[in-house]
Amino acid sequence: MVLHGRTAVVTGAGRGLGRVEALELARLGANVIVNDYGQPGRDGSGEASAAPAEQVAAEIRAAGGEATAHLGDVADFDTARALVELAVERYGALDILVNNAGILRDRMVFSMSEDEWDAVLRVHLKGHFNMTRFAAAHWRERSKAAGAPVHGRIVNTSSEAFLAGSAGQPNYAAAKGGIVGLTTSTAAALGKYGVTANAICPRARTRMTEDVFAGFGEPGEGEPDPLAPEHVAPLVGYLAGPAAERVNGQVFVVHGGFVALLERPKVAAQFDTAKDVFTYEELDAVLSPYFADRAPEENFAATEVLGLKRR
């Protein structure tokens, strides 16, 4: 019960990854506010419904935990503010924020509409920002009032799509890359208040990823599924807890029996000129040979980056 007495908000917790993350935090002792907008379509379509969040909250209470369901769109600035305020009013404080809510509107970049772009960035990236903004203000105020650091934990949900390119998801890949930038900036800003911010890139078979992982790593009869979302939840629980107080600004890839820590981007090669400025001809002379043996798509082979194999 390492999170006993702590309060967590998990967004998009009515299904899939968010659900198992909420259940894990409750198992570790946290009070959990289960947020979900409850729309039936993974593209954000359909009528909002409180049922998914209420069902997960009921699961937590049935297991002896404490949970509150919340229906709301975290991409709305005022809704995000109200969600943090709910945690404070109901449980006295907010200690843990797990940003998970998202939608998909896949399309090749040459066919994507403005609405398909805006909607995905709104839910993923703006939703992460909205919740982070009000949670950060809460922790800063608490820390200044106490004259000491507080227990504040942010776990953001990125994706290897930001690394691998994900050809049919330019909106999703851009949003997930933005979430990494938001995470590292937040980590730098809030560390002095005792707050950590980290991101996970989960590989999990959920409603959101049913197309991405179709045919990848599917278990045989009677075998455990390495891409079951339950494999991701323990890392979220760890990052939310006291043992991870020195883990800050990091990005992890996680799936069944596997946790990988990503490095910050490093310089792969350096090219210099004896002059102050390169000429076109000089750049051609040094850069073109470097890339001569590579087909353009080789640098963005998603299956190679993901390390996945079809069964």
How would you concisely characterize the structure shown here?
Belongs to the short-chain dehydrogenases/reductases (SDR) family. It is built from nine helices and eight strands.
What is the gyration radius calculated from CA atoms? 21 Å
Q: Overall mean pLDDT score?
A: 91
Distance between the termini: 39 Å
Return the CATH architecture: 3-Layer(aba) Sandwich
* Biggest sheet descriptor: 8 strands, mixed
The backbone outline, from C-alpha atoms, is: globular
Here the CATH topology equals Rossmann fold
Low-pLDDT runs of 5+ residues are 300-305
Identify the CATH homologous superfamily.
NAD(P)-binding Rossmann-like Domain
CATH first level: which class? Alpha Beta
Kindly name the structural category: alpha/beta
Domain Ketoreductase: 6-232
Family: Belongs to the short-chain dehydrogenases/reductases (SDR) family.
Keywords: Oxidoreductase
Protein name: 3-oxoacyl-ACP reductase
Description:
α1 (16-27) crosses α7 and α3 runs parallel beside α4. Strands 3-2-1-4-5-6-7-8 form an eight-stranded mixed β-sheet, with helices on both faces. By secondary structure, it is an alpha/beta fold. α7 links the parallel β6 (195-202) and β7. Mean pLDDT is 91; it is low at 300-305. The protein has a single domain, classed as NAD(P)-binding Rossmann-like Domain (Rossmann fold), CATH 3.40.50.720. The protein contains nine helices and eight strands.
